[in-house]
Amino acid sequence: MSTSTFKAVILAGGSGERFWPLSTPERPKQFLRVFGGASLIRQAVSRLDGLVSPRDVFVVTTKSLVAATRKELPEVPKGNIVGEPMRRDTGAAVALGVGLATGGGDPVVGFFSSDQMVAKPKEFRKVVKKAVALARRRDAIVTIGIKPDYPATCFGYISLKTRAFVEKPDAEKAKKYVKAGYLWNAGMFIARASVFRGAFAAHAPALECLANIGGGARPIAPAKLARVYAALPKISFDYAVMEKAKNVEVVPGDFGWDDVGSFAAFDKYFPHDSRGNVREGPCTVVEAEGNICVARSARISLLGVKNLVVVTTPDAVLVADKSRLTDMKKLFKR
Q1: For tag attachment on the chain, is the N or C end more exposed, with fewer CB atoms within 10 Å?
Q2: 203: pLDDT confidence band, cut at 50, 70 and 90?
Q3: 221: how many CB neighbours lie within 10 A of its CB?
Q4: Contact at 8 Å (CB) between 248 and 140?
């Protein structure tokens, strides 16, 4: 693959809510060194080795995280890491990534998340190569669909037959989707820059200006970016473009993908004791079952409780029922 004709954009605008208090707005999930040793954003860039050179890697993050991101990814040129002045969801982030990565040219641009796990990076690279080749040949947005391990209700799905995107389903619908051969939507999108620009023009014209803002040799002025962002709608790329676009292609992937979307991931990646408890740090567990115990400061002692998540850090304590982990955002609405 010619690295000069493929650019990779890492979307890294996480807010730190799902893994609070281990992650915070100042050090969100992508900086956690919990799964796999290196931080998740470090892993996201490293698994692209051989597909794209560091000079062709771009990162769209938040303004407050630019310095931390540059420190974490020293091989990526500083000008390739740009902070959004305010949150406008993935619609704006993808549009900005197109403008940042292309600078007026028409390379293939791939969008990847900064906070996911891939157990088989070699297989991941094979699938991405296939998607890039398809994007070169066709005027289409290519998405990578993940073969489901189970009927998940926390992911969106995409149909291989109709290319239709569907939002996070309930348990019954999820079973039907898996049986019908639907794939998980992992939020990976690959297309030529001109195809992305055309999609924004057709389906989300309010975001089109960002796709044409220009990067590369022409740095984007922060003041200009702030003025543009102030007028943008807050909308995801799925809603803004993918649910409306007809020129969508799907490449299936099976490379051990995981969104590691909540503390439930500790059950998957950490060993359990004889009663099914996960313990990291100084944790005492007596007659307790199925708990996740993460002590980063004060010792945690559990007695006779089941299915809890208990986390301590120097600044905060979390106690939650495992079944409520998908509701973590409610803690930040008070």
Answers
A1: C
A2: very high
A3: 10
A4: yes
Average of per-residue pLDDT across 188-210: 96
